[in-house]
Amino acid sequence: MPQAQNLPFAFSARDIVLMGRSAALGAFATPSARDHDAAEAALARLGIADLAGARMTRLSGGQQQMVLIARALAQNAPLVVMDEPTASLDLANRKRIEDLVLGLARDGIGIILSTHDPDQAARLCRSMVLLHRGRVLAAGPMRETLTPATLSTLYGTKIRREELSDGSLHFRA
């Protein structure tokens, strides 16, 4: 799932999600009822079924991001790769996507995602790889990897790690 996509044609959101099913189609095949059902289910799972007929060129950046996530879900793949899945999303949709990612992981779907937000990484990831200038800076379990030292090196500024009363981590510059 890309971070963003620039579409030269005014496809509907439904068409974009249905394109996620193309890997399951043979050469010259058209989407079946099962493919359409998978696309509709993905739109519904994200709570954006009402956008199905809307043209992508008319949607906000956040709405487009939600449609791209629905396209990835429609593939029914055992592994989903997401590049900054919450970019351009408001707080409510960001929470919806984070909950979706956690739910997919609980359902046995592998998730690989990139994020620049250490708080989000702490909420969503059990293990991680931190990349700095094209090299691995740290890799391993979340609590061992997201340290003030590694994050200070990564972001080039002093980072503090706070553990909240619920056990979650929060990072501050």
UniProtKB/TrEMBL annotation:
A molecular function GO annotation: ATP binding
Cross-referenced Gene3D superfamilies: P-loop containing nucleotide triphosphate hydrolases (3.40.50.300)
Record keywords: ATP-binding, Ion transport, Nucleotide-binding, Transport, Zinc, Zinc transport
Xref: PROSITE patterns: ABC_TRANSPORTER_1 (PS00211)
Keyword hit for Zinc: yes
UniProt keyword annotation of Transport present: yes
InterPro entries in alphabetical order: ABC_transporter-like_ATP-bd, ABC_transporter-like_CS, Metal_Ion_Import_ABC, P-loop_NTPase
Entry similarity comment: Belongs to the ABC transporter superfamily.
Protein name (record): ABC transporter ATP-binding protein
Lineage of the species this protein comes from: Bacteria, Pseudomonadati, Pseudomonadota, Alphaproteobacteria, Rhodobacterales
